[in-house]
Amino acid sequence: MKIKVAQPGMLTTVQDMGRWGFQGKGMPVAGAMDLFALKSGNVMVGNEEGAACLEVTVLGPTLTVIEGEGAVVATGADLGFSINGISYPCNNVLKVGEGDTLSFSGMKGNGCRAYLVFSGGVDVPVVMGSRSTYLRAQIGGVDGRALVKGDIFITGEPHILWRRFVDFQCPVAVLPERRTGRPLRVVLGPQDDAFSPKGIETFFSEPYKITESADRMGYRLKGAVIEHSGGADIISDAIPLGAVQVPGDGQPIVMLADRQTTGGYTKIAVLCSPDIAEIAQYLPGQEIRFQQVSFEEAVSLAKQESDQIIKLRQSVAAWITRIVPPMSECETEILMTSGTWELSVDGETHTVSWESLDY
């Protein structure tokens, strides 16, 4: 498909799984803030899990399909997605074609970031192994920036059976349970020994509010001062996704997708992977708390998230291999194995060959 940007929205960028393998050279990973939403959307339209999509923040864009057709699904937060003025819920795969207008009416209260995923993915140039937009360095995506009015982009080659993905509705059971107000789970470290017992207790017992200094790089928080046992600085080391830095003023910073590769502030803890996607849906002014979990629990949570994607893939596979009622004089039973099939349509006989579905 070829798609034109009629209105860009507040901040709409191309994102995928990120630019891995270059942190040693100082290049941040970037990528989608809510990785589960990216992966689940791609699974629902038959893409590779890491295919590029549009990350839509708070106020969504208005897009027009000017050529071709394909499948699309909105995932993540509900920002009021609609096609030609008709509203559709998230996680439903829809067919769009030439002349269709895709738009968003606004936030519905369950987050600030939606992901618009097209069959075939957004086809922009690959830079250092990724199509993600890294705004600070102006690389990736569409000319290294957010979409602007008048931009035209294309989607890639879709799954050969993309039409069979249309109308799939993601079961609620495979979506993560996200509840505003639930403490975000963290594992202590790697420099938790730089904090006093009082500082550790403060971190887990006090609420912290997300300040206006919150973007794709990280969220600065404000709340009770977290006390260090010594100095707040260390020799710079790597910053993992979801790390909670605490500089000398005792106010934590949660590091997110566009974080720098290294930093010299002590890190008191690291968020569990499902909760990184959860905080990415929060806005400035919202309050958060932290809850300690063990390393083993964090691994288990990550595995549960991975299992949800597997279950979603199985659900999608069941959908696309369903028996579709015949539209003419077709056979009513189709065995999903390779072979040939004589199809009679309007008195003419056609030989159809197919292969077993591998999805």
From TrEMBL:
Its EC number is 6.3.4.6. Keywords: ATP-binding, Hydrolase, Ligase, Lyase, Nucleotide-binding. Residues 24-308 form the Carboxyltransferase domain. Transmembrane segments: none annotated. GO terms for molecular function: ATP binding; hydrolase activity; lyase activity; urea carboxylase activity. This is Urea amidolyase related protein. SUPFAM superfamilies: Cyclophilin-like (SSF50891). Coiled coil: none annotated. InterPro entries: CT_A_B (IPR003778), Cyclophilin-like_dom_sf (IPR029000), PxpC (IPR052708).
